[in-house]
Amino acid sequence: MVCSTTSTLDNAEIVEYKGLVFGEVISGVNFIRDFGASIRNIVGGRSQGYEEELISARTEALGEMEQRAAALGANAVVGVDVDYEVLGQGNMLMVSASGTAVVARAK
């Protein structure tokens, strides 16, 4: 599945639009990661636990979006956008991916 943030694809022609597709993931951050991040917030540095959670959630959201596009008969998704939100008391992360499912043919 080809995914692009642009509305067109290089070396391919969009021959059919299938519709909007979405992928969403809501992920909880556990106490140990939260505690480690709060310490790093005081002393400085990157939070590897949060970064890993963010990468995992983004990968899952994009994968879910691609699966939904494939279920519509698409072979590509254009106009992809990924959004991030913090929910609850700051211990829930929502990642959503959206785009337009299309059928593309090589030029």
**Could you say which overall geometry the principal axes of the C-alpha atoms support?**
elongated
Tally of separate helices: 2
Content of β-strand:
35-45%
Indicate the structural class: alpha+beta
- Distance from N terminus to C terminus (CA atoms, Å) equals 17 Å
What secondary-structure arrangement, pairings included, does this model have?
Layout: E1 2-3, E2 12-28, H1 31-43, H2 48-71, E3 76-87, E4 92-106
Parallel strand pairs: 1-3
Antiparallel strand pairs: 2-4, 3-4
At a glance:
This protein is an alpha+beta fold and 107 residues long.
Question: How would you sum up this structure, described in words?
Answer:
There is one protein chain. By secondary structure, the protein is an alpha+beta fold. Helices cover 35% and strands 43% of the residues. The protein has helices at residues 31-43, 48-71; strands at 2-3, 12-28, 76-87, 92-106. A 4-stranded mixed β-sheet has the order 1-3-4-2. The longest helix has 24 residues, at 48-71. It is elongated. The mean pLDDT is 86.
